[in-house]
Structure formats: C-alpha cells, structure tokens
Amino acid sequence: MPYLRSAIRWGSDFILRAHTSPTTLYTQVGDGYSDHNCWMRPEDMNTQRTLYKITSDSPGTEAAADAAAALASASIVFKNVNSSYSITLLTASQSLFAFADSYRGSYQGSCPFYCSYTGYQDELLWAAAWLHKATENSQYLTYLSNNQGWSQAVSEFSWDNKFAGAQTLLTKEYVSGVTNMAKFKRDADSFICSIMPASGTTQVPTTPGGLLYTRDAANMQYASSASLILVTYSKTLSSAGIHGVQCDSQYFSNEQIRAFAKSQVDYILGKNPKGMSYMVGYGSKFAMQVHHRGASIPSMRVHPTRVGCNEGFSTWYSRSSPNPNIHVGAIVGGPDSNDQFNDVRSDSSHLEPATYMNAAFVGACAAAMLTDLQLSLHNNQTTFIRQY
User: pLDDT per residue over 145-192, tens digit each?
Assistant: First the structure.
C-alpha cells in the first residue's frame, strides 16, 4: 500500500501545483507538435516547454472537473493515513469543481492536445460523484439529481467520456436507497448491455479471439476501462442483493459479467490467438518495438552522446531491431479487429503505450486475480468436502 499511495501522490501533487489560483489550472507542459516532430530521449529534449492553462477567460470545464475528480478520489486514499494531506486534496478539489462549474466552456476551444469531443457534462457529473463520495455532503447529491438529465447511455468509458464511470458510482447511491438516482442505474445497465456479447443490444463488437473492439487506435484503453466498469458494477449489484442485468431478452448474472471482464484481462496478458502479451515485459512473447522514444534509444549509460531530434528518427526510430530498453509494464495499443498484430515501431495506433491504458487495467487485473483466487478456494473446498 505505501507504494500505491506514493504513486497516487505523485499525480495528485502535480495537479495541486498546476492549480495556482481559484480560476487557473495549467493543463499541458510542452508543445505537442514540436515534440512529435522530434524523436529524442527525455534527457536530450530541448524543445520548448510551452505552458498551457485554462482560466475564467479561457475556460476548459472538462479539464478542471477531471482534476477535481482526481483529487477527490485521491483524498479518500489518504483520509486515514495522512488526514492533513487528504484535506488539502479535498479543498483543492472543491475549488476546481467550483471553477469548472462556474466558468463553463469546453476545453475543445482552448486545448492544444487531447481535446474534448463529448462535451463537459460527463466530467461535471464525474467530479460531483467523487466529491459526494469523498465528503458525503448532500449538496453534491442535490447537484447530481438536478442535472441527471445530462446522463447518457454510452458504450465506452475513456479519458474523454466519463459517463459510465459516474453512472457506476451513482448506482451505488441508488441501490443504497437514494431513489432519485434511478436514471444513472438505467444508463449503467445500458452500458453493460452495450458491451456484453449477444446481449440483444450489443454495440461494441469483439474480435474473433474475443477482445472488445471499440476502435482501431489504442483500442486496449477501451477494453481495459470497460473491464473495470464491468467488475465494479457487478460488485455493486452483488452487494445490494441484485443478481445481474437484464438486457433485452438476455439476462447476465454478475458472475457472467465478471467472467467476461476477466476474459479481457486474460486476452491482454496473452490468452489470445497470437499467444502474445500486450503488456510489455510480461510473459515470454510481447511487443519488442514499442512506439516510445525512451525505450527505442539506448540509455545515457550505454550511449552518453546526445541524440538529436532528427538523428533519433534516422538512426533509432527506423530500425527494424527490438528496442534496446524494455518498457516493462506498459500496455500497447493492441491488435487489429482480426487479432492480427504487426510489431513495427512506426505503427503508433497499435504500438504506442499510454497511461490511460494502464490506469484502468490495474483495477480490472486486481479483480481478475481475486476471481481466480475465489474460484481456487471454491474448488479446493469442494474437493475437500468430497474427500471428507
């Protein structure tokens, strides 16, 4: 747990430092275009570290609300181990939420990279849901109730679309007796039905090997995030004595939902037609040409001479040999819709790693491990009873 808290604190400290006033949040360091035009180790980078920010005059509700949600959730982690830090996080979260809600304007209008394509209403619901969970303050439930019309039935949970996450959190309120949260549960059920194969209302196809396939670029983010929602939602239903979800004419038990989520984790880790782990460094077969600057150029210890912007492309990016550094733990974009995977560094859609792929996978993987443990215990108990 100390290691986990340390990792969370690294991110929350960054957000705290970026929130320099009640109506200012720095959202990006560095120019994405000039950075993408260079293939360099981070130690060699000399491109401009341009700063981008949102303010009351140039708002970005999505970014401010997302930061608020992150700090609110982090405050829960530290509540019982470092109460003063937890309060600091919660205070900043409330400030960011007030900024996001008071100065509404889409980040689409002021962003340089990772713009919003789904609007800011999902992030406002997401932030309010986490703030309610962190504070138990009824004002956030009132806000959510008043704005539940924003909630939409969706088929993805991603860095841009937070509806399914908010709906999953708020379903817990509904099953706990807050009956005016019913729309959130209906929309969460709809998400489950849009993901589960052969539900009658399935919207996301699977590859022949069984991987959820939302879109071609960086698809593993959608498979891992959907898995996290599936296991979390089924756990919420089970704790409330609800045994599953009715989808059209097809009923899925919580066990079936968790089993499908686990199949996605298993696929990512190597149980797929290629027999390949899409987590770098895990298993005996994994991506060797990860689309990553630091991984594809020798370390400073091995190659102390500076590697320039263009030299990185001509000498290292275009090489057909494996990367000199193994980016252990990184999840790459994954295979195409037919489970095919071409391990070529230039194919960023399938070889580029990203934090938004790993982040959700951690929770989904933990749940899959727990499922395996519970199944093992059940089988052992059954064997013991039979022997007895």
Answer: 999 999 999 999 999 999 999 999 999 999 999 999 999 999 999 999
* Strand-pair partners of 277: 286
Q: How many CB atoms lie within 10 A of CB 71?
A: 29
State the Cα–Cα distance between residues 220 and 211, nearest whole angstrom.
9
Maximum pairwise Cα distance, the chain: 74
Of the chain, the end-to-end C-alpha distance in Å amounts to 39
Confidence at residue 379, expressed as pLDDT on a 0 to 100 scale: 53
Say if residues 126 and 66 touch (Cβ distance below 8 Å).
Answer: yes
Half-sphere exposure of 254 (CA within 13 A, CB side): 14
Whether the predicted pLDDT of 195 surpasses 80: yes
Q: What is the DSSP letter of 243?
A: -
Phi/psi at 83 (nearest 5 deg)? -65, -35
**Secondary-structure breakdown of the chain: helix, strand, coil percentages, each rounded to the nearest 5:** 55, 5, 40
Average pLDDT over residues 75-81: 97
